[in-house]
Amino acid sequence: MRSSDFKTILITGASSGIGLELARVCAEKGHDLVLIGRHAGRLKDAATELAAHGVKVHTIRKDLSEPEAADAVLKELTRKKISVDALVNNAGFGDHGAFEKSDWEKVSMMIMTNVHALTHLTRLVLPSMRAHGRGIIVNIGSTAGLQPGPYMAVYYATKAFVNHFSEALDYELRGSGIRVTCILPGATSSGFQEAASLNGSLIDRLAKLATSRQVAEFTYAKMMAGRRFAIHGVFNRILAFSLRLTPRFLVTFMAAKINGEGS
């Protein structure tokens, strides 16, 4: 794929972490941007910074955990007459702890953001991409989605959805000029640990975290290469392969220990 064919890229969760770093990479490559995020001040700061690269930067403040968020985003794009050539579904967050003790409001917001908004936005941009005969959809999955994750059960399950949905949709769209790329980062220094209450857990203490910039550069390279499925980091690729050979009860047991069982 030629990057010049994809002028405008929409990125959700673009005010911090991987989303912001990917926006920086895209701006450096000359892409116009639409940034979606919950924090107006952060979006404004990001837009000012990125516009210095000589690209157009539009911002839409929207909480994607709201049921009608995707419709509102499309309405704003239509109003501004913005055609999106690439959609990056990056927004998402996790939670940590036993499911039965979880805050249901937070769990519901996680499902809405990680699954509902991602799926709905994808569905809404597809007609325009189909009409143009090209497009890129990038979904940020996770190595967490390759296994069950006790004490982060819903988060792991949402990422399993993202991983599988992305691969299936890319197959459905073969020959259309539209490609779907699913990126699977492992543990990343992106603010996720704090948001998911993981600070101090075994994974937080032991994992050698990739930087958001490293994941962003990897994501850009793979989306432009048209890759369907890409796992970031040698260790994570080895882990993914080993999961195929390990009994499921042992995979679940180890995930529980890593996620803080007994802590």
Share in helix: 40-55%
Count of helices?
Answer: 10
Strand content: 15-25%
CA-CA gap between termini: 47 Å
Mean pLDDT value: 92
Give me the side-by-side strand order of the main sheet.
Answer: 3-2-1-4-5-6-9
| Helix/strand order | EHEHEHEHEHEEHHEHEHH
Quaternary state reads: single chain
Second rung of CATH, namely the architecture: 3-Layer(aba) Sandwich
CATH classification class: Alpha Beta
Major sheet: 7 strands, parallel
Instruction: Let me know the number of strands.
Output: 9
Topology record:
Elements (H helix, E strand, L loop, with lengths): L7 E5 L4 H12 L3 E6 L2 H12 L5 E5 L7 H11 L6 E4 L14 H29 L2 E6 L12 H20 L5 E7 L3 E2 L2 H4 L6 H5 L3 E2 H14 L3 E3 L2 H12 L2 H11 L5
Parallel strand pairs: 1-2, 1-4, 2-3, 4-5, 5-6, 6-9, 7-8
Helix pairs in contact: 1-8, 3-4, 4-5
Keywords:
263 residues, alpha/beta, two-stranded parallel ribbon, 9 strands, 10 helices, Rossmann fold, seven-stranded parallel β-sheet
Note down, in words, how this protein is organized:
The chain has helices at 17-28, 40-51, 69-79, 104-132, 153-172, 192-195, 202-206, 212-225, 234-245, 248-258; strands spanning 8-12, 32-37, 57-61, 86-89, 135-140, 178-184, 188-189, 210-211, 229-231. With 263 residues, it is α/β, with parallel strands linked by helices. It has a single domain (3-258), classed as NAD(P)-binding Rossmann-like Domain (Rossmann fold, 3-Layer(aba) Sandwich). The strands form 2 sheets. A 7-stranded parallel β-sheet has the order 3-2-1-4-5-6-9, with helices on both faces. It has a two-stranded parallel ribbon with strand order 7-8. The chain is globular, with a radius of gyration of 18 Å. The model has no long low-confidence stretch (mean pLDDT 92).
